[in-house]
Each structure stands twice: as structure tokens, then as C-alpha cells.
Amino acid sequence: MSVVAERLKWNSASLLWRWSPLALISLIALVIPWIVSPLWIRISTEILMWAGLAQSWNIIGGYTGYLCFGHGAFFGLGAYVTGITMIHLGWPFGFGLLISGILAGLLAAVIGYPTLRLRGAYFAIATWAFGEMIRQIATILEITGGAFGMQLPAFLNLPYFYYVTLLITVIVYLTTYLLLERARFGYKLLAIREHEEAAEMVGIDTVTIKIKAFALSAFFPGILGGVYAYWVTYIHPDSVLGAQITDFMVVMAFLGGIGSLWGPFLGAFVVQLINRYLWLVWGEGTFYLIIIGAAICAVVLFIPNGIIGLMEARIFSPREALKQLRRIVKW
Amino acid sequence: MLLQSHELSISFGGLTAVDRLSLTVEKGMILGIIGPNGSGKTTFFNLVTGVYAPDSGKVIFDGKNITGLRPHRIAQFGIGRTFQIPAPFSKMTVLQNVMVGTFIHASTMKAAKEKAWEILEMVRLDEKANQQVVNVTLEDRKRLELARALATEPTLLLLDEAMAGLTTVEVKAAIELIQSLHTRGLTIIVVEHVMEVILSLCHRVVVLNYGRKIAEGAPDQIVNNQEVIRAYLGEHYSARR
User: Fold this and answer.
1) In this complex, is the C-beta atom of A184 within 8 Å of any C-beta atom belonging to chain B?
2) pTM of the model as a whole
3) Which of A23, A151, A158, A304 is the most buried (most CB within 10 A)?
4) What is the count of residue pairs from A and B with beta carbons less than 8 Å apart?
């Protein structure tokens, strides 16, 4: 038995091990609208949307290491632009989406040019202020309907929005995989995150690369915002530009594990499920947010690398889990 | 002449870190820069590589004026540099670190990987290629620092205390490595406190004090220069020789 043959066998086994869960998830994702109730189609769509949003945030926040706290602005911008192009210009939905994404990306490039010089808390504060600014603008403009918001043409077709969201989120993850995990661009982002000065010193144009990453990470929320607007048909500044949009993107990415491909997906899945479960139990209150907040504190304290970090450290084994628990209790 | 700095000055607040510094580096030579802490050695490197723009003066590299250009442009012109405190990309492997350096010329991931392997073999880090950087020793981090700079295929290499903190044996290996790079045609500037390194490597030595050049010459001349002894080496060192 040659070593090569042995290794080949092992490789194909590991390949199967690696891709079969993905194939299974894909299959489930494709048939969901046929087998579950409308409520669960809604919840599934939400999970997919948040998975896409969290991953978009992850591009700048996780891979590049620039914690953006104004990302909800790009989502809201997309929602409003899609609404405006459909109502006032009569453009088709798909075209409005594309314009939303492009405008969000362009706005990110413009905002990023001055702010991406700042690091850490300063960048976070600058982007947070930018997010607030966009919300105020949406509140005072006439074309956005001000504080009352805007009504889009109704198109009540849950499976349609499920599949559109699925398609876009798949594109988000494919882009992340191909451009960030498997290409020079992604390595350059990691280098910038780990040591920006050294990255510059080996010939990386850090300013340009960061702006590209920021624009890319804003492009997809712009599109998803547009889908959301058409889906829920009624938007207003609090619903699409509220602070909780950014908050949830950040929280989901952190819980799942930032800077990883599947982290934001896992985070979105867990948080949105809990979110909806508590909402079903307690109804239309905000009490459930307190529980989510407490859970987030626990995550940041005890599993800073998120679910993915736990899995990589293989402390899912009972013995290791016990060891961890003991460490935590002692702490 | 590969590199020329002409009347280079920069000050921070009231402190003049580099003061009208002029020096030239010929192709194929190893130049040593010595001087007490805070004498402007690292600041000089930062001026050459574009980290700081000088208040006045010029940097000419290979006939081109590179004064005030951004560091990545200067790297593209062919100046490589290592940091005094190793500055690896921590959450990446050794190989990935070097690959990032090769991107300056390699346009595909495959080419980058091949080039990175080649360099890792040259600095004898190939066995640790797939280790995470956080798990390698200080000596290997220094080698990695060098490997990443070499990955950009520089014509001029700036080594900022590449041997600080290494043991005698490790220093010996590092000297050999730098000599082998020199025989491959690299021009090198070393900033170093270990005098043995300066004496065994350098063709010329420049001595800085308070940002000013106080002496320049062959290593033998430098160690016997009275002003250098007073400012930096100390009476003890000259007595020992």
C-alpha cells in the first residue's frame, strides 16, 4: 500500500466530509418554501438576509479589522433607493436593486476615503456618526417620506422573496470564498488587519485595498436592503436605519466568529432563531432584547473567537468542554 | 550609486531626529549604520522607505527621486525593509506571510506560493512553512521578517537590528545568511548594535549621533575614531581591542 494511495483515499474521504454538509444545507435551503408554514418561510428569509448582512460586515470588520458601526446605513440606503426608483421612477425591482448596491458601494468609498485612516475606536465612532447622519437625512427629506416612511407597491409572495434573498446571500458567500479566502485580495486584507505598516512596506497599497473592501462590504447590504423594502412593503427610518440593524450585523458576526467564512452564517442562524423564538413567546415587546444583550456579553467574555473558534479548538468534545467550564467557573 | 540621501532632515516637535544627513550607498555594498539609541538610525530608515516625509532634503534611489512617496510605491521601486521588532502578520502561517510579500510581482496564487517556498528554503524556514506565526521562536520570526522583505525581490535591503536578542550561535548563522544574500548581488544597509556583526559584514560604516553623521569610513578606522569612541563605543571597548 503506497503512501500516495493512502493519502488520496484520505483526501477523498475528507473531501466528502467537507462538502456533504454543504450539499445537505443547499438541498434544505432549496425546498424550504415547499415544506414549511408561511411563518417559517418568513423566519428562514430573515435568517438568510441576516447571514448575508453579517458576512458583508465581516468583510470590513472581520477580514480587514476595521470595526464599522454604521453599516446599517448602507442597508437603509438600499431600502430607500429601491423604493424611490420603483415609486417615483417606475423602474423594475431588479434594476432598482442594482442601483441600490452600486450607490451603497460608492457612498462607502466616499466615506471610507477619509475615515479608513482612523483605526480602532476612532473608525468605529466615525462610522457610527455617519450612520446617524444618514438616518437623520432620511427623516427630514421629503422624497423618503420623512419620519412617516414610504409605502412600496405590494407584492405579497413569500417564496419569491425567500429565493431572491437566498440567491443574494449565496452570492455574498461565494464572493467571500473566492475573493477573500482564495485570492490575493483576501490575503492583503488579512495582512492589513494584522500589521498595516508592514503590509504597506511589502508593496500593498493599503488605502486603495481598504476602500475596495469597504465598498464591497457595503454593496451587498445595499442590495439586501432593497429586497427587504420590497418584501415588507413599508419602510421608515427606524425600521431600516435603526441602530439595531448595525448592532445585529456585528453581534451575529462576533457570535459566529469574525474573519471566518461560516462564522457569520452560524451567528445569524443562532441569533435570529433565538430572536424570533423569544419574540413569539413574549410578543411584540423589547424584553427579549435584554436576554440577547446578556448572551452577547457572555460570548464576548467567554468565547471571543465565536462558534467557529470553539469548533476549531475542538472543545466541542465533552472532556474539553468540561475543562473549559472548570476554567470559567474558577475565573 | 544606488541610494543617495541629500541633506535629509526631519524633526518631531522640538527634537531634530535626523539632521542634514547626506550619505551614499554604492551598488553591491554592505553599509553599516551605528550610533547610540535615539541617534536617528531607525528614523533614517523610515525616511528612506516613506513612512515619514522629510522636512527637507532628498532621497534618490537608482536615479529616481523617491522623496515623500508612499511606502508601497517605494517597495515597488525595489527597497525592502525589516522591522526592529518583528512585525509578522500574526494570524497567518509562515508561508502565507511570505506569500503576501511576493504579491508585489506574482500575479497568481500559484506563482506566489512557489516563490514563497523558494525564499523559505533560502532562509531555511521551509520546515516551519505551515506553522502559525505565533508558534515560532524569536529567531525564526527574525528570519521570517527577512524572508518577507526578500519576497518583494528588492535591490536594496534595509535591516533594522536583525540580530538584536539572538544568541551568539544564532548571530553567526544570521551573518552567514546576510553574506549569502550579498553574494547574490543585494545591496544592504544594516543598523546594528552588535559590533562584531558590523565588523565582519560591513564595507563601510556611518556613525550617527543626535541625528548627525559624526564619522564615516572603513570599519577599522571607525573603531579607532576618537569621537566615535566618546559618543558610542566607550573607552572600555577601545581598550579591549
Assistant:
1) yes
2) 0.90
3) A158
4) 77
